[in-house]
Every structure is written in C-alpha cells, then in structure tokens.
Design goal:
alpha/beta; Rossmann fold; about 40% helix; 3 domains; Phosphorylase Kinase, domain 1; single chain; about 20% strand; six-stranded mixed sheet; elongated
C-alpha cells in the first residue's frame, strides 16, 4: 500500500511515520505544497494524509491553510479516485462540516460493498483515530492484493490497472481474474476480456472491460448513456459495473458478456467463419436509430477529413504524403449525411459471445460523424488495424488499393470478398452519396499517416485511388 504523508512539522512527522509504516509498505513524506504536487505528478497513491497549514516549498516560512487546500483540489482534479484524509492541528468544526457537506463523496473503495467517505478530517491531538482508520484501510488493501490476476506475458498491466481488475473481481466474490486483450487499445487504454473465477475455477462473471485513465472512462460512460443506449437491444453489452475510485487516476467500465467464449470479428475472419458476410448488414440494422436521425448537408472533403485527423496533425505528417497534392480534393464539395457513429468500428471492436450475434464494444469515440464512417472503417481495418497481421497474407497489394474505388479490382484475391462487399453495400446505402463514401475512405487513409506502425505505401495508394475517383 502506497501512502503519501504531507506534513511540514518535522518532529510530528518523525513520531507518526513509524506508526504509518507498520501498516503501509511504502510511506512517502513531503513537507510542502510544491513537494506534494511533484510527488502526485510522478506516483499513484492508495491514500493521502494531508495537513492543512503548509508552506509553498520546503524550508520556506509562508505556511498557510490555502496551500493544503490547493493540494486537495489538485488531487480531486487530477486523481479523483484517490481518498484524502486531512490531519490537522487546527480544530475547526466548521471545516469538517464543510468537507462533509460540500465534498461528501462516498464510494466502495475496496470492492466489498459498503460505501466509505472519500474525504475525512482527523485532529492531530487524536492521532490514534487516524492510525486506527489507516490500519483498517491497509487490511482491506491486503485482502484486495490477495486476488490473483492471470495475464499473457505481452499484456503487462500496470499496478493501477491491476487494482481496477481486483476491485471488479472482489465485487463479484472472485479470487482470480483471467485477463486477455480484446483489441490492443491505445497506449493508455486497454480493452480486455475478463473472466472472474472462484477458488474452485468456476466462472462467476464474464466481461468486456475498458480500463483507462478516469477522464477516458468517465467520457465513455457518458457516450454510452447518450448514444449507445439508443441502439437496438442485444447489439451491445450492458454496462454492468463502473470502477471510478480506489485505483488512483485509473478507472474501468465492465460490460457484461454471456458465456466463457468471447471472440472478435478478427477471430472469425481468421477462422473463415461462414457467417462473416452477414455481420455488416446486422450491424447496419443495429445502428438504424442513428441513421434515422441523419441530416444531409453539403460539406467539403476537408471538413470530413478533419473528423479523422486535425489540420495540425496533417501538417506534422505532410512528408508522409510523399508529394501527393491533396489541395484539390480537400476543397471538393460533396453531399454527406451527418449522424452519430461508433467512429472506431474496427473488427476488434465487434465481438461475439455464446449467443453468436455481433455486438459493439469500446465506445470512447462514439459521437457525431458521417454515415459512411463505420462501414468504411470496418472494411479498411482488415488492412490497417494492428491485428490485420493475423489475417491471410497476400492481400491487398498496392495495386488492389490503387483500385479501391472499383470494388472488383480492390477485392481481387481477397480471402473474404463477400465481407468486403457487404461493408461497401452498407456504406453506399447509408451515405448521402458515393462521393461521401470516397471522401471518408480518403480521410481514413490520411489518418493512417500519423501512426508509426501502419503501412504508409498502402495508405498512399488508397489516397491516390480516391483522388483518381474525384478527378
């Protein structure tokens, strides 16, 4: 258990620190506002014990209550899942009442049910009260850390990500979490398959989990409530649990799945599953409420491209265009249908549980876009997503991408041409025009230029195909 002790009185700190260390394996002591903020920027803590009256910097005689308050507010902003206990010699009942009234947040900090106060006030003359509370807190952390996590060697979850998984496992009365990656995710975001097991290996819960910084999980939770719940039931997993406290600045969203065998659309493409061509029309039907609210408008291709990659990012990657002049296509006006889209609908974000129907996961980007975005993204993820390497080799070639706007030439040699055709049918059916479909493909290709691990040769071939169409 990691504890941050913020106290400028060296004598008092020297007396209290050994008592804290009996319950915590890592007690960090700092003496000022600046030192505390530096420690918080570099380390995640399980608990913070904070004096009110502190100086701005070590050995500076400007101690004031506003400096302790500044630390508290910084913690609430930057690490809102971390509990803070004030330990102060200024016995001000109004302060304790204000903390309770204005900041009286309670939460399940240890994953065992009862909600506890996130922010508490202790008086220094009654230090024993604080030490007993620390002991109880540490005991709960020991129980939590006793939950095992099994993960593949290449996953390498950090301590806070493991804490989120342990909290979810304890909530489900499990003793083991078996974890694997569903789509790789971004560097600071994980999309995971989680099995919670009892000691006798019974599966107690199955989930598709998003584990990420709290700002990202809070944002996705809001997008889920605003956009995903509008879709037809059965096409997305229900949000079963939210972990937003107890793991520093890391949180988790756990979507319930059925059964112990969850696979992605990439898995089914690799296996040559017979019903793969049925998936695009099923997803289109699922997203019908989004398309029913679409608005047709005239926009430039540049406006569509900015939904995929900003002007500044494109400027940074200008050299990756390798001399391709996109000025003309960016200014071209097209008829496009604006509506809500998943906006990251690659084949790893389409999963199947034991019911066998496709479901959407990972809603962190869901929001306003253009109607061709999801089907085009789904189609092209077979080429540009990191998991494309699991698919049969040999397709596509640069010549295939150069013919993207001609479906026959593009899909020649493809091991799953019916799936590609179904994606294209979906795009053409929902877009306001074929121009919109090509503009979205162009925008998707340009975005690939900013990633280090994508095939730039194929991306440029796709850009040239889109330019040829508009020419």
């Amino acid at each position: 258990m990691r504890l941050l002790f913020v106290e400028d009185d060296t004598t008092f700190a020297r007396e209290v620190e050994p008592a804290l260390a009996r319950h915590c394996d890592d007690v960090a002591w700092v003496r000022s506002r600046n030192s505390a903020l530096l420690a918080l920027a570099n380390t995640s803590f399980d608990l913070i014990i904070l004096d009110r009256k502190l100086p701005t910097a070590d050995d500076v005689l400007d101690d004031h209550e506003e400096h302790g308050w500044a630390i508290f507010q910084s913690i609430r902003e930057r690490s809102p899942g971390t509990p803070v206990w004030f330990l102060t010699g200024t016995e001000d009942p109004d302060f304790a009442a204000d903390i309770n009234n204005e900041y009286g947040k309670t939460a399940d900090l240890h994953g065992h049910g009862p909600a506890e106060q996130m922010y508490r006030v202790f008086w220094k003359r009654r230090i024993s009260d604080c030490l007993r509370a620390v002991a109880r807190f540490a005991e709960e952390r020991i129980v939590l850390e006793g939950i095992a996590i099994t993960q593949p060697a290449n996953l390498q979850l950090n301590a806070d990500e493991c804490r989120v998984l342990r909290l979810y496992t304890r909530r489900n009365l499990g003793s083991l979490a078996v974890v694997s990656s569903l789509n790789g995710g971004l560097s600071n975001s994980r999309v995971l398959k989680v099995f919670v097991k009892a000691a006798d290996q019974r599966i107690l819960a199955t989930a598709a989990a998003k584990v990420a910084p709290l700002a990202m999980t809070n944002d996705e939770g809001q997008r889920y409530r605003s956009n995903i719940l509008r879709l037809r039931p059965g096409g997305f997993p229900q949000l079963a649990a939210t972990i937003d406290v107890g793991a520093g600045n890391t949180g988790g969203l756990f979507y319930g799945m059925v059964g112990d065998d969850v696979e992605s659309l990439f898995d089914r493409l690799v296996a040559g599953h017979a019903v793969v061509p049925d998936v695009p029309p099923q997803l289109r039907a699922l997203c019908a409420p989004w398309y029913q609210a679409r608005r047709v408008e005239t926009v430039t291709v540049g406006q569509i491209r900015r939904r995929f990659i900003s002007d500044t990012k494109l400027h940074e990657k200008q050299a990756e265009l390798d001399g391709i002049d996109v000025t003309g296509i960016e200014a071209r006006q097209v008829s496009a249908a604006g509506c809500c889209q998943h906006r990251d609908l690659h084949c790893a974000n389409v999963v199947f549980d034991e019911r066998g129907l496709p479901m959407l996961i990972d809603f962190g980007d869901t929001g306003a876009s253009f109607a061709a975005t999801d089907p085009v993204t789904l189609e092209l993820s077979t080429i540009f997503h990191s998991q494309h390497a699991t698919l049969p080799v040999g397709w596509p070639t640069e010549e295939n991408l150069a013919s993207w706007h001609d479906l026959g030439g593009f899909s020649a040699g493809c091991p799953f041409p019916a799936f590609i055709a179904a994606c294209r049918t979906w795009a053409n059916a929902e877009a306001a025009s074929v121009d919109e479909v090509v503009a979205v493909a162009y925008s998707y290709a340009v975005r690939q230029l900013k990633y280090e691990d994508t095939n730039k040769v194929l991306a440029r071939a796709l850009i040239r195909s889109c330019l040829q169409y508009f020419a």
